[in-house]
Amino acid sequence: MLHDRANVTESVQTDAQVPTRRHILVVEDNDADVFLLKEAIALHKLNVGVHVVENGALAISYIESIDGNPVSDGPCLCLLDMNLPLRSGPEVLRHLRRSQRLAAIPAIVMTSSRSQTEREEIMRLGASAYFHKPITYGEFMDIGNVLRCFLPASHA
Questions:
Q1: What whole-number distance in Å separates Cα of residue 4 and Cα of residue 88?
Q2: Strand (E) positions, 82-133?
Q3: At residue 133, what are phi and psi to the nearest 5 degrees?
Q4: What architecture is the 26-147 domain classified under in CATH?
Q5: Using an 8 Å Cβ cutoff, are 23 and 62 in contact?
Q6: pTM of the predicted model as reported, rounded to 2 decimal places
Q7: What is the tens place of the pLDDT at every residue in 83-115?
Q8: pLDDT tens by residue, 46-86
């Protein structure tokens, strides 16, 4: 059966029409904190996916893989725990800031430490913000507001 092309409705979308869902890189070894972070993203209705790596060595490998693949979709933000196994948070942050493709993305550092010296070091290394991990659920949900401040407008 032949169809007249003028009578056929096409549902093909161009790249400009397809909504993209960016993601954030979460470098966190604590499953409970990852769960709470995902809860905060849902609560604040942030339009981002989450890519989790659980140690500093994997984070550095991930950064290097993004640098090595110019067509890969890198994260629009990094949420980084200070105290990580294998490679430290500051070491990951240094790698991120030297990255060819990811150096300019916001990096929010999370920690349970209240050390002013640690905070100053992290900011000197190029952190965009510093978030103290709170004890209560409600306080932890505030990370959603912090993320919203640093996400591109179309994802916030």
A1: 63
A2: 107-111, 129-132
A3: -65, 115
A4: 3-Layer(aba) Sandwich (3.40)
A5: no
A6: 0.81
A7: 899 999 999 999 999 999 999 999 999 988 888
A8: 989 999 999 999 999 999 999 998 888 899 999 999 989 99
